[in-house]
Structure formats: structure tokens, C-alpha cells
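User: Please fill in residues for this 227-position structure.
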């Protein structure tokens, strides 16, 4: 199995001339930078080997052949001082990037979740895990601009240091407080991964996790029926 980083340090597995995104399989590894992910995979290889293999088989690959051809053309153009070769290389790289964006958009796009959130009745927003996990949804959810989102078990990595400071926003909640809030009459929305649904079902029960929108393996849930 050949591991690599691509697209701003997402972890991938090389499968022939394609790379498959397997970052979800290792999202439980605490990290500050990409090197932490690799270190976590190496030290926990017995745990992650099966997860990575399963994710690589189930995932959709992005073609690398076009990017490889572009690299070769660029190398030859640099060696021969050819401007035309450099232009061809840039065009091929842009085309390869477009193919990658098209291939991964159904899995990575957050706009559909944000649009569903904007259309739904107003409530309070909870992000499962760290802020950056669903930060793009918060960006697109214009109806919630200016309203702080709560972070369920999000007191990790760089956010943890300042979360205990005097005057820090009271946005970090644990499982016990989540259960209490989810059972209130007020409406709450939760953004989470599908892989975390079993844990949430154990906390509040499957019946109270109502799906507002699902996009790939990302879920927008609410605690009360929608009108």
C-alpha cells in the first residue's frame, strides 16, 4: 500500500494511476500538522491498515496520468527552454485539477448542507468534532453568520489552548451537555460524519436524530421534526 498527501495534505492511497481519498479513515488521529497523521498511521498500523484498505477499495479515485504527463512535458520544456512546452504543461495541470475537483465534489462539497440549513427553521448549530471539520458549512450558511456554533468534543489541538482562558466563549460542549441540549424544546442542528452516527445513537437514540440533509457521508441532523 502506497500512501501520499494530495490536495492540501489530504491522506490518499495510490491505486494504479489514481489516488483515493482515505482521510476519513484516520480522522480520529490527533493532529496539528500533516506529519502527525503519518506518525499516527505508522504507530497504529495494526489498527489503520484494514481501515485504509477498505477506504481505498470503496473510494473513488482521481486520475493521476494527466498530471504525470504534464510533469514530464514540463521537465522536457525546462530542459530545452521551450515556452510552448511550459504552456502545454500548465494547460494539462489545470485540466487534471478540474477532473479532480469534479471527482471529489460529491464527497467534499459542503454547500448543499449549508443551503439546507439556510432553508430550514432557525435553530442553534452544533458541529461534531473540531471547528475546521465543518467550517465551510458555517461559511456558506449565511443565516447563521454572527451566531457562534457549539463544538461537540471539539476541545482538541490548537483550539484547546485558548478554550480555558478567562473570557473564552462558552462554545465547547461534551457528550453530557449535548444530550441535555438535544432533549430541550429548542431546535438544534448537528453537523456530523456518517461514521459517527452509531455513537450519537447511543447518546440520544436513533429516533431523535432526524436527517435534514445528507451529502456523501456528511449529515445535517435536527432534534425535532421539520414542519
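Assistant: Residues filled in for all 227 positions:
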Amino acid at each position: 500500500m502506497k500512501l501520499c498527501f494530495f490536495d492540501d495534505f489530504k491522506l490518499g492511497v495510490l491505486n494504479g494511476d489514481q489516488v483515493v481519498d482515505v482521510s476519513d479513515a484516520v480522522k480520529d488521529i490527533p493532529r496539528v500538522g500533516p506529519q502527525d497523521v503519518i506518525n499516527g498511521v505508522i504507530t497504529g498500523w495494526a489498527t489503520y491498515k484494514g481501515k485504509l484498505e477498505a477506504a481505498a477499495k470503496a473510494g473513488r479515485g482521481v486520475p493521476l496520468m494527466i498530471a504525470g504527463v504534464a510533469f514530464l512535458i514540463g521537465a522536457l520544456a525546462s530542459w530545452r527552454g521551450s515556452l510552448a512546452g511550459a504552456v502545454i504543461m500548465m494547460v494539462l495541470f489545470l485540466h487534471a485539477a478540474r477532473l479532480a475537483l469534479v471527482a471529489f465534489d460529491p464527497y467534499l462539497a459542503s454547500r448543499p448542507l449549508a443551503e439546507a440549513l439556510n432553508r430550514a427553521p432557525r435553530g442553534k448549530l452544533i458541529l461534531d468534532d473540531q471547528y475546521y471539520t465543518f467550517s465551510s458549512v458555517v461559511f456558506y450558511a449565511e443565516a447563521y453568520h454572527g451566531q457562534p456554533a457549539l463544538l461537540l468534543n471539539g476541545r482538541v489541538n490548537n483550539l484547546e489552548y485558548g478554550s480555558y482562558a478567562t473570557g473564552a466563549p462558552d462554545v465547547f460542549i461534551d457528550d453530557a451537555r449535548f444530550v441535555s441540549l438535544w432533549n430541550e424544546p429548542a431546535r438544534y442542528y448537528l453537523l456530523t460524519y456518517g461514521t459517527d452516527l452509531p455513537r450519537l445513537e447511543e447518546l440520544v437514540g436513533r429516533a431523535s436524530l432526524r436527517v435534514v440533509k445528507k451529502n456523501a457521508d456528511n449529515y445535517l441532523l435536527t432534534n425535532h421534526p421539520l414542519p
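For context: The chain has three domains: 2-59, 63-108, 111-222.
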